[in-house]
Design goal:
heterodimer, A: 581 residues, alpha/beta, ABC transporter transmembrane region fold, Rossmann fold, four-stranded antiparallel beta sheet, 22 helices, 62% helix, B: alpha/beta, six-stranded mixed beta sheet, 64% helix, 10% strand, elongated
Chain lengths: 581, 581
C-alpha cells in the first residue's frame, strides 16, 4: 500500500473538480445542524417557563413548539439536500476516477495488463471505487454536522453554567480509559486474527480448487477434516477474542455517553447550594442528552477516512504505474521489415528475457521463432506486436524507430493470432466487423467464408446475429479461434504473427483452422511460433532462440547441419510425432 | 422486511437460540437504559417541589450507576451471544457447503462454478458474519425496545403514549414507502452495474484487440459509456430518493414536537403534573431514538439479505446419491449397457453399449460434440446415467462409494491442481504412505525428476497454490507422477487437454506411456500413432457408436474414421508458407 500522500489530499485531487458541490454540501450541513439545535432551545425555553411558574399561556408554548417544528423540518430538508449534493458530487468523482483508470489502461504496456489476473483491474475500477461511495458521500456533511453540533452545544452550555458543562465531559476520558485496557492486547490479537482467517481462506480455496483432485484420489475424508478444522478455528478465535474484549467495549459504550452520571448529582449540589437556577439546570439536562451521541458518531468516521485512504492508495498505484513511451505525432510507416538492434528486454527489471539481440525479419517472408520455453521467442513476438517497449536497444519497423511510431499505427499493421483470442459480448457479425471500420455485412461474410467459419456460424441459433456471450463463452475454443481469424482477415494487416496459433485447441477442426491460417498469411510478413517443428520446415528463415539470445538462424536444412540445438529439437519432435512421418 | 428477518432467522439454524437470548438480553439492557429517566425524574421532582436536600444527588448518582453497571453486564452478554451466533452460523454454513461438495457430481465442477463457490464461502459469508446478526439484533431489538418504551410512556400518561404509538406507525409507514420506492429503481441500477463490470472486463481482457483494431478511435469506448450510464443511474436514484429521505427524517421529529405541544396543553389545563410534564419534554427527545437507529439499519438489513440469498444459492447445487458400498471389483472390464445421457434437453448419448476388456487400450474418436468426453466421465461417475448402466468388473458404478470407485481410476487430465505443499507431498497425495524412494521412482517415470532436482529444495520445495511457479508442462507431468504412484488399474485421458505445453511433447509422451503400462485405458485420441496402436477404436457420432474395430479394420471402411485419418494426416503434416498454395 502506497501511503505517501494523506488520504484527504488524495481525495481532493479527484473530488477537487466538484469542490463547489462539496462546499455547498458542507454549508447546508452546517445550516442543518444549527436548525437542529432550535428544538433544544425551544424545549429549554418552555421548561424554564414551566419551572419558573412564569404563567405563560398556551400561545407561548405553541409558538416555541412551532419553532421546534420549523427547526426539525429545516434540519431534515437541509441535511437531506446536503447528503444528496455530496452523493451527486461523489458519483461524479467516482466516474472521473474510473474514466481516468480506463484511460490509463490504454497507456500502459498491454503486456502488464494481460499478465495480471483480469479480475485485478476490474476489482480496482469497479469494486474498490464503489467502496468509497458511502464514506466519501457521508464523510464531509456528516462529519461536519456531528462535530459541529456538540461543539456548539457545549459552547452554549458553557455560557449557562461553565462548571456543569465541564463536568459533563468527564465520562469521555473515563470511557476511553476503560477501552484502552483492551488496546494493549489488540495488536497481538488482530495479528493473530489475520493469520487465522488467512489460514481458513487458504483452506477453503485449496479445498474447492482441488476438489476434483481430492475426489479423484479418494482423499475427501482427510481434506474435509482439514477444512472443517480451519473453519471452526476461525469462528472460535473470534468468539474468544470478543469474550476477552467485549466487556470493555460495552463499558465504553455505556459510560461515555452517560453525561447524566455527573450532570445530575452535581447539578443538584449546585442547585441546593443556590448557585444554579432550576431553569438553567433543566436546560443543561436537556441539552446534554443531545451532546455526546453525535461525537461518538464522528469518532466512527475515522474508520471511514482510513478506508478511503486505502482505496485511494490502490487507485494511485495503478495510475502511477509505468506507461508505454510513444510519440503522439501522427505518422505512418512504410514497409514491414522488422529489425532488432542490440535489444535487451526484461519483464521485471532484473532477469533479462532478451539480451542484446540482433535480428531481422524481412518483409513478405515467413520467419519462424523456435526454442525451448523461456528462450525468449514469445518475447520477440510480443515486442513486435507492441505489448511492451524494449528496455534497451532499438526496434525498427519499416526502417523507423518504434518510439517514433504511435502505438496505434504499429498495432494497425499487425494481425496477432494466438490460442485464446478475445471476443466481445456482441453478435458474431459485429465481432468480425471490428477487423475493419465500415466493413459491410458482405465483407464480413466473405472474411468468414475465407476463414472457414461461415458454415458453423450459419448453424448457430441466430446465425451471424448470434451474441457470443461474455468473452465468447458461448462458443468453443476452436470456434472462437476461427472467428478471430476471420476478424484478422478483414483487417488485412501486412504483418501476421501466429503465436502458437495452431496448438491443439480444437483437434477435430485443426485442418480447417490450418487452411484458414494459410489464407491469412498469403503474401504477408509472417512471424510464426509453432510447437510442431514440422509446421515450419518450409519457413524462409528459422530463428533458434536460447536463453534470451539468438543461437542460430537459417533454413530448416542449414540448421539441421549447423545447429546442435535445432537438431536435438527436431529429433525430439520426430521421435514422438505420430502420423506419416 | 419481515421476509429478510425470516431469511436471517432460517439461516441461523442451530444458532437461533443465541440470537434469541441476545435479543432478550438487549431488551433487558434497554430497561437499564430507561432507568436514566428515573434519575432525571428524581431531579425534576426535587426541582419542582423545591426540595433542596443533597440526598437527591446521591439517589440520582445511585440510579445512574445501577443503570450503567446493568448495561455493561447485559450488553456484554448480549453482544457475545450475537457474536457467537454470527460466527458460528457462518462456520456451520461453510462446513455444510464443504460437506455438500463431497457428494456433488464431479461433472458439475468447472472453473466458473468453483470460483463462485469459493467467493461465496470466503467473501460473501464473511459479509454475513459481520452484518446479519448485528442488523437483526439492532433492528428487531430496536423495534422491540421502542415498543417497550412506548408502553412505559403509555403507563405514565396514556394520552402521550398514544401519540408515541401513532408516531411509530407513521415512521414504519414512511420507511416501507421508501423501501418500496428504492426497490423500484434497484433492478435498473443493478443492470447498469452489471454492464459496468462486463464492459470493464472487456476493456481489460480485450485490450490487445481494442488497440490493434483502433476501436477507441472509432466510437466512444464502451467502458466509458458504461461508466457514464452507471453514474447516471446512481444520480437518478439519488434524486428520486431524496424526498423520501426528507420525509423519513422529519416524521419522528414532528411527532416529538406533537408530544411537546400536547404536554404543554395538558399541563396548562391542569390534567398533568409539572414534574410529569417536564419528564415528558425530556422523553420527547429520547423516545424515538431506538426507532431511528433501527430505521437506519434497515439499509444494512437489505445488504445482509442479499448476501444470504447469494450464500443460499449453494443449496441449489446438484447432489448425487452416495449410498454405495466399498467394492473391490474382481476384474477391471468396463461395460456400457444401453447408456442414455442428456444435459437438460440435449441428448448426448443414446443407448450406447460396448465392452472394454481389462488391460486393453480403447481409443475414442469422433467430431466435436459427439459425446466423447461425456462417455469417459460416466465411467468415473462425474454424472449419473439417465438410462442403462455403466459397470466395472460387473458392478454398477452407482453401487460403489465414490472413494472406492475412484481408487480404481486415474483421470489424468481433468485438473492439474497442485496444493501449496512440498513437491513430495503433492506427488504422494493419493497414497500418503508412499516412501521417498517410491516418490522418486514415480517422478523419474513421469520425467519430473530432473526439473524437481533443479528446484531450490528439490522434493521439499513448497509449491505456490495451484502450482503457479511451474510451467504448464511441468505441472502436467507432476500430476502424471501422482497418478503413476496411485497405480490405479483404469486410466482415462483426453489427449487434447493433456497437451497444455506443446513444447515438451516428447517428455509428456514418455510420461504418459509410463503411466499406461499394463493398465486398462480409455482415451479420447487425437494423435494417429495412439489410434493405430489401440486394441479397440470406438467412433462416436451424434451420441451413437457408428464404427468400432481396430485401425486396420476401420481404415478400409468408408466412413467417419477414414475421414478422421486423412484429416489428421493432413493436420500433422501441415507446413506454413507465405506463398499461395
Amino acid at each position: 500500500m502506497n501511503k505517501k500522500a494523506s488520504p484527504v489530499s488524495l481525495i481532493m485531487d479527484y473530488a477537487g473538480a466538484y469542490k463547489g458541490k462539496y462546499i455547498c454540501s458542507m454549508i447546508l450541513a452546517i445550516i442543518s445542524v444549527v436548525c437542529g439545535m432550535v428544538p433544544y432551545f425551544a424545549v429549554a425555553k418552555m421548561v424554564t417557563a414551566m419551572i419558573g411558574h412564569e404563567d405563560k399561556g398556551l400561545s407561548y408554548f405553541a409558538a416555541w413548539c412551532a419553532a421546534a417544528a420549523v427547526g426539525y423540518i429545516a434540519k431534515g430538508i437541509f441535511s437531506s439536500i446536503s447528503t444528496s449534493i455530496s452523493h451527486t458530487a461523489t458519483f461524479f468523482t467516482m466516474k472521473q476516477i474510473r474514466q481516468k483508470l480506463i484511460a490509463k489502461l490504454t497507456k500502459m504496456p498491454m503486456g502488464t495488463i494481460l499478465e495480471s489476473p483480469s479480475g485485478y483491474y476490474k476489482d480496482v475500477i469497479v469494486d474498490r471505487v464503489e467502496g468509497i461511495e458511502v464514506p466519501l458521500a457521508h464523510l464531509l456533511p456528516e462529519m461536519t454536522a456531528n462535530v459541529l453540533a456538540p461543539v456548539l452545544m457545549l459552547i452554549y452550555l458553557l455560557t449557562l453554567d461553565w462548571r456543569l458543562a465541564l463536568i459533563s465531559l468527564i465520562t469521555i476520558p473515563v470511557g476511553m480509559a476503560v477501552m484502552s485496557t483492551t488496546m494493549k492486547s489488540y495488536g497481538k490479537n488482530y495479528g493473530k486474527s489475520v493469520e487465522i482467517s488467512g489460514r481458513m481462506t487458504n483452506a477453503i480455496v485449496e479445498y474447492m480448487g482441488g476438489i476434483e483432485v481430492i475426489k479423484a484420489f479418494s482423499q475427501s475424508e482427510n481434506s474435509y477434516e482439514k477444512y472443517e478444522t480451519a473453519v471452526n478455528d476461525n469462528a472460535a478465535f473470534f468468539y474468544n477474542w470478543m469474550k476477552s474484549a467485549q466487556w470493555a467495549m460495552s463499558a465504553y459504550n455505556a459510560i461515555t455517553p452517560s453525561v447524566l452520571l455527573t450532570v445530575l448529582p452535581f447539578g443538584i449540589l449546585f442547585y441546593a447550594s443556590g448557585s444554579l437556577m432550576a431553569g438553567a439546570f433543566v436546560t443543561v439536562i436537556v441539552l446534554s442528552l443531545g451532546l455526546l451521541e453525535p461525537l461518538i458518531a464522528a469518532m466512527n468516521y475515522t474508520d471511514n477516512i482510513a478506508r478511503v485512504g486505502t482505496v485511494m492508495g490502490q487507485i494511485n498505484e495503478v495510475l502511477a504505474s509505468p506507461e508505454i513511451e510513444r510519440t503522439n505525432k501522427v505518422s505512418s510507416v512504410n514497409g514491414s521489415r522488422i529489425e532488432f538492434k542490440n535489444v535487451t528486454f526484461s519483464y521485471d527489471g532484473e532477469k533479462e528475457a532478451l539480451s542484446n539481440i540482433d535480428l531481422t525479419i524481412p518483409e513478405g517472408k515467413v520467419t519462424a521463432l523456435v526454442g525451448h520455453s523461456g528462450s525468449g521467442k514469445s518475447t520477440v513476438a510480443k515486442l513486435v506486436a507492441g505489448f511492451w517497449d524494449v528496455s534497451d536497444g532499438e526496434l525498427f519497423m519499416g526502417g523507423q524507430n518504434i518510439h517514433d511510431i504511435p502505438l496505434e499505427v504499429q498495432t494497425e499493421r499487425i494481425a496477432y493470432v494466438e490460442q485464446n483470442n478475445f471476443l466481445f459480448n456482441e453478435t458474431v457479425m459485429e465481432n468480425i466487423r471490428k477487423g475493419k471500420a465500415g466493413a459491410t455485412d458482405e465483407d464480413v461474410i466473405n472474411a468468414a467464408k475465407a476463414a472457414g467459419c461461415d458454415e458453423f456460424i450459419r448453424g448457430l441459433d441466430k446465425g451471424y446475429q448470434t451474441v457470443v456471450g461474455s468473452a465468447g463463452g458461448h462458443l468453443s475454443g476452436g470456434e472462437r479461434q476461427r472467428i478471430a481469424i476471420a476478424r484478422a482477415m478483414l483487417k488485412d494487416a501486412p504483418i501476421v504473427i501466429l503465436d502458437e496459433a495452431t496448438a491443439y485447441i480444437d483437434p477435430e477442426n485443426e485442418a480447417v483452422i490450418q487452411s484458414a491460417l494459410a489464407k491469412l498469411v498469403q503474401g504477408k510478413t509472417v512471424i510464426v511460433i509453432a510447437h510442431r517443428l514440422s509446421t515450419i520446415t518450409d519457413a524462409d528463415n528459422i530463428i533458434v532462440m536460447e536463453n534470451g539470445t539468438v543461437s542460430a538462424h537459417g533454413t530448416h536444412e542449414t540448421l539441421l547441419k549447423n545447429s546442435e540445438l535445432y537438431r536435438d529439437m527436431w529429433a525430439a519432435h520426430t521421435g514422438t510425432k505420430g502420423g506419416a512421418a | 422486511m419481515i421476509g429478510a428477518f425470516k431469511k436471517i432467522w432460517d439461516f441461523a439454524g442451530s444458532e437461533q437460540k443465541n440470537i434469541k437470548s441476545s435479543i432478550v438480553l438487549a431488551l433487558l439492557n434497554s430497561v437499564f437504559y430507561a432507568l436514566q429517566f428515573a434519575a432525571v425524574y428524581v431531579v425534576l421532582r426535587s426541582l419542582t417541589s423545591g426540595d433542596t436536600s443533597k440526598i437527591n444527588a446521591l439517589y440520582a448518582l445511585g440510579i445512574m450507576v445501577v443503570s450503567i453497571a446493568g448495561r455493561i453486564i447485559l450488553n456484554t452478554y448480549s453482544q457475545l451471544q450475537r457474536v457467537h451466533a454470527g460466527y458460528f452460523m457462518v462456520a456451520n454454513k461453510r462446513i455444510s457447503i464443504g460437506n455438500k461438495l463431497r457428494s456433488v457430481p464431479m461433472g458439475y465442477f468447472n472453473k466458473n462454478n468453483l470460483g463462485q463457490m469459493t467467493a461465496i464461502t470466503t467473501t460473501t459469508l464473511t459479509d454475513v458474519e459481520n452484518t446479519a446478526p448485528v442488523v437483526l439484533v439492532t433492528v428487531l431489538g430496536g423495534f422491540i425496545n421502542s415498543v417497550v418504551f412506548a408502553l412505559s410512556v403509555l403507563l405514565f400518561d396514556w394520552r402521550i403514549g398514544i401519540i408515541v404509538f401513532i408516531g411509530m406507525a407513521a415512521f414504519l409507514w414512511t420507511t416501507s414507502l421508501q423501501e418500496k420506492h428504492s426497490r423500484k429503481g434497484a433492478p435498473e441500477r443493478q443492470r447498469a452495474q452489471e454492464m459496468l463490470v462486463e464492459k470493464i472486463l472487456e476493456a481489460v481482457q480485450g485490450i490487445s484487440v481494442i488497440k490493434s483494431f483502433r476501436l477507441t478511435e472509432r466510437s466512444e469506448s464502451a467502458a466509458d459509456s458504461a461508466i457514464e450510464e452507471s453514474c447516471k443511474k446512481n444520480l437518478f436514484i439519488e434524486k428520486q430518493m431524496t424526498p423520501y429521505q426528507i420525509f423519513q427524517q422529519i416524521v419522528l421529529n414532528l411527532f416529538a414536537v406533537i408530544i411537546m405541544i400536547a404536554t404543554a396543553a395538558l399541563y396548562l389545563n391542569g390534567s398533568m403534573e409539572l414534574s410529569n410534564a417536564m419528564m415528558m419534554f425530556v422523553a420527547a427527545f429520547m423516545v424515538f431514538e431506538q426507532m431511528k437507529s433501527a430505521g437506519i439499519s434497515i439499509a444494512t438489513l437489505r445488504i445482509a439479505e442479499s448476501s444470504i440469498d447469494k450464500a443460499n444459492e449453494t443449496d441449489n447445487v446438484p447432489v448425487m446419491d452416495e449410498g454405495g458400498r466399498d467394492i473391490i471389483p474382481a476384474n477391471f472390464d468396463i461395460a456400457f449397457e444401453n447408456v442414455d445421457f442428456s444435459y437438460g434437453e440435449r441428448k448426448i448419448l443414446d443407448r450406447v453399449s460396448f465392452d472394454i476388456k481389462q488391460k486393453t487400450t480403447t481409443a475414442i474418436v469422433g467430431p466435436s460434440g459427439s459425446g466423447k468426453t461425456t462417455m469417459c466421465s460416466l465411467i468415473a461417475r462425474f454424472w449419473d446415467v439417465k438410462g442403462g448402466k455403466v459397470t466395472i468388473g460387473g458392478n454398477d458404478v452407482r453401487d460403489f462409494t465414490l472413494d472406492s470407485l475412484m481408487k480404481n481410476i486415474s483421470m489424468v487430465f481433468q485438473n492439474v491442481y497442485l496444493f501449496s505443499d512440498t513437491v513430495e507431498n503433492n506427488i504422494k497425495f493419493g497414497c500418503p504412505n508412499a516412501t521417498h524412494e517410491q516418490v522418486v521412482e514415480a517422478a523419474k517415470k513421469a520425467c519430473c525428476h530432473d526439473f524437481i532436482m533443479q528446484l531450490p529444495d528439490g522434493y521439499n520445495t513448497v509449491l505456490e497454490e495451484g502450482g503457479a511457479s511451474l510451467s504448464g508442462g511441468e505441472r502436467q507431468r507432476l500430476s502424471i507422477a501422482r497418478a503413476i504412484l496411485k497405480d490405479a488399474p483404469i486410466i482415462i485421458l483426453d489427449e487434447a487437454t493433456a497437451n497444455v505445453d506443446p513444447e515438451n511433447e516428447d517428455r509428456l509422451q514418455s510420461a504418459i506411456e509410463a503411466l499406461m503400462e499394463d493398465k486398462t485405458i480409455i482415451m479420447i485420441a487425437h494423435r494417429l500413432k495412439t489410434v493405430r496402436r489401440a486394441d479397440q477404436i470406438l467412433v462416436l457420432d451424434g451420441g451413437h457408436i457408428v464404427q468400432r474395430g481396430t485401425h486396420s479394420e476401420l481404415a478400409k471402411q468408408d466412413g467417419i474414421y477414414s475421414r478422421f485419418i486423412s484429416q489428421r494426416e493432413q493436420a500433422e503434416n501441415w507446413h506454413i508458407t507465405g506463398q499461395t498454395t
